[in-house]
Each structure stands twice: as structure tokens, then as C-alpha cells.
Amino acid sequence: MGPRILTSLVFEYDCSSLLIAGLLYDDFLAMHDLLRKTFRPVLSMDPALTKRFTRRRLICYMQFISITVLSILIHYVGVTPFVGDPEGDLFHRLFVRRFFEDNYALVVLQFIVFYTVISIMTFGSIVQVTMCMYSVIQINFQYHLLVDDLNNKLMFHPDDFSLIEDYSHQQKISKNLKRCVEELLKIQAVATKFFKLQSPVILVSMVSGGMVVLVLLYLLLGGNRPFSHFKIAGGLFVAEYMVVTFCRLGQEYSNASVEFYDKLCELPWYYWGTNNRKMLLMILTNTKELTISCFGLKDLNHTFLLYVSILLAIAIDSIYIL
């Protein structure tokens, strides 16, 4: 059950559950550190302050548990099922497991390298490390899903047209297939953007640049507040930035996929032979709905989970900083 929950959090809910869980975890660590070290003498003397931090801890626990439970319920109850695959078994069996089996060593190596480098650059912040590691895994997964599976399903062989007697329909199919290939190239161009984001230079520059701005802001404000407050604020900023980035690229990817789907619908598939109809069915069931569902772009439950999680995290950190 554990690995399946993890894959659902990482791959089905985009920048929501995993990142907010990491955010709350980092938040909880900062609060725990303040409780045990910085404010221990004060807390022992001020009952009101003790009550405030106790309430803060309970709220943090409740948020973390509620988001986790909500994510699991959405996945297992089937609130956001894939078309023709209510339980999500086909998706996980064919794509997630295959991805990790084929790229396990690469993923482990990247995790070690990126975690070490980014931990140093971000002063060990769980939030920034989680964001960057998520982007690496998500980019690898989307690139693999697009270029490998989608490309293989577009491999039409000349024999597939042998059952079509009307030559004019063969020409029309051939012409429309070329248009489909053009649309596929557009999708691959978008996927290349995802792949380029995997560059260590880009990731480290983005995170280190954000931390430099954070340190400058901390110094300009006189350093009156604990630096952990600014780390939390920086984590929120990075989380928002990455969510917007992935949503923009995801929407562009979705638009290209829809155009590709529309071109496929223009094909005179009624005159195709049995093999062609099976091939078309495979394409339709493994591109449009799957790619859109991967990003959750048209999923109300995903949107609700994402924004509620972010708002809860911002609210609790605002209370904490104030």
C-alpha cells in the first residue's frame, strides 16, 4: 500500500500533496526547534505563549493528517478515475512501475546528487529540496511517457492499409497522418522544455538565486526575526513559483495534446481495417485522457486539493510569523 500511495501523491496530484506535505514538515521542524531550544525558558514562564505554540502544533498536525487522508481517499475511492480505468491499476502497472524498473539506477543517482547539492545551496531546507527533487522525477516521468509510449503507438506499418480498397481513402489517411505527426512534434517540443528543466545548472541557479534574495531580505530587515521564518517564507515562494511553472507548461502540453487528438478525429477511421481501428483505439485511450489526467488540468478535485493545501499552509505560516 505504501508505494502506491507515494506514486499517487507524486504523479497524480502534480504540485499538491507531496510538496505541501514537505512544506508542513519543514514548518513543523522549525516550530519544534523553537519549542525545544529558542523559546524553552520563555515558554516555562509564559502560559499564554505556551498555549499559542501548543495550538500551533495541533493545527500543524491536523493539516498534515487531513491533507494526507484526503489524498488517499481521492485515490482509493476513485473520485478522480482515469477513463476506462476506475481504480488506476492500468496506469500504475503500465507506466509508473515500468518507468522505475527501466530507470531505477538513474533515479537513485539523481536523487543522491541533487539532494546533496541542493541541500547545501538551500541550507538544508526540506521544502526547496522536495520541490527540486519532485521536478526531476516529474520531468523524467513525463518525458518517458510522451516520447516512448506515445511515439511507439504511432508506428503504423504499411500492411495496416492493405484492407483499405479505396485508394482515395488511403491518400486521405496518409495526408492526415502526416498532420498528426506534425502535431506530435509540437508535443515533443513542449516535452523538451520539461526535459531542459532537469538541468542541474537551472535547478541549482533557481534555488540558489532565490536563497540569495532571501538572505538579502533578511539582512535588510535587520535580522530581527529568526531566519527559520524567512526559510518558511522562501519555501512558500518557491512552491508557488514551481506550481505556476508546471501549470503553464502543463497547459501548453495539454493544448498540444488536444490538437493532436482533434487531428486524429479527422481521420476517416470508419473505412479503416480491423488493425487500424485497434491502433486508433489504443491511441485515443493512451494520449488525450491520460496526459490531461496526469497534470490534473481538468480535475476539479485536484484543483480543490491544491489551492486548499496552499491556502492552509500560507495561513498557518502567517500566524506563525506574526
UniProtKB/TrEMBL annotation:
The chain crosses the membrane at residues 58-84, 104-127, 201-221, 227-247, 304-321. Its main location: membrane. Keywords: Cell membrane, Membrane, Olfaction, Receptor, Sensory transduction, Transducer, Transmembrane, Transmembrane helix. The keyword Cell membrane applies. One of its GO terms (molecular function) is olfactory receptor activity. Pfam families: 7tm_6. It comes from the Eukaryota. One of its GO terms (cellular component) is plasma membrane. It is a multi-pass membrane protein. It is found in: Cell membrane. One of its GO terms (biological process) is signal transduction. This is Odorant receptor. The lineage of its organism: Eukaryota, Metazoa, Ecdysozoa, Arthropoda, Hexapoda.
